[in-house]
Amino acid sequence: MTMLTFAATAASVAFILLLALGDPKRRRAAGLSDGHGRGKRYLYVLGAVLPGLPIALTGDAAMWLIWFGGCAVAGWLTALWLAKPVARVRNGKG
Amino acid sequence: MIHLPKNETKLMVAVHGWSGILLGLVLYAVILTGTAAVFAEEIGIWSAGHVSTNSAFERPIGQTVERLGQQTPSKYHEGVDLFEVGDHELGAFFHRHETNADGTFVSRGIYYQVDRTGRVIDRQAGTGEEVFGPRNDDALSHFLVDTHVRLHIPNPWGLLLTGILGLAMLVAAISGLMIHRHLFKDIFTLRRRANPVLFNRDRHSVAGTWSLPFAFILAFTGSFFSFFGTVGVPIVAMAAFGGDVQALNDTVFGNPGKPDPRPVATSGLDRITSDAIRRTGEIPTFITVENFGRADAKVTTFHPPEEGGVVPISLLYAGADGRFEQVKPLIGAKPSAGGTLAAIMSPLHFGNFAGLLSKAVWFGLGFAMCYVTLTGLRLWVVRRASEARSLGWLDRLVTIVGLGLPFALLCTAAAFFLTASSGQALFWTPAGFLIASAAVILGGFLMRDREKFGLMLEGATGLLLLGLPLLRLFIDGPGWGEAISAGQPIIAAVDCALLLAGGWVIARFASQWTQGQSGQSAVLEAAE
Question: What does pTM read for this prediction?
Answer without folding.
Answer: 0.91
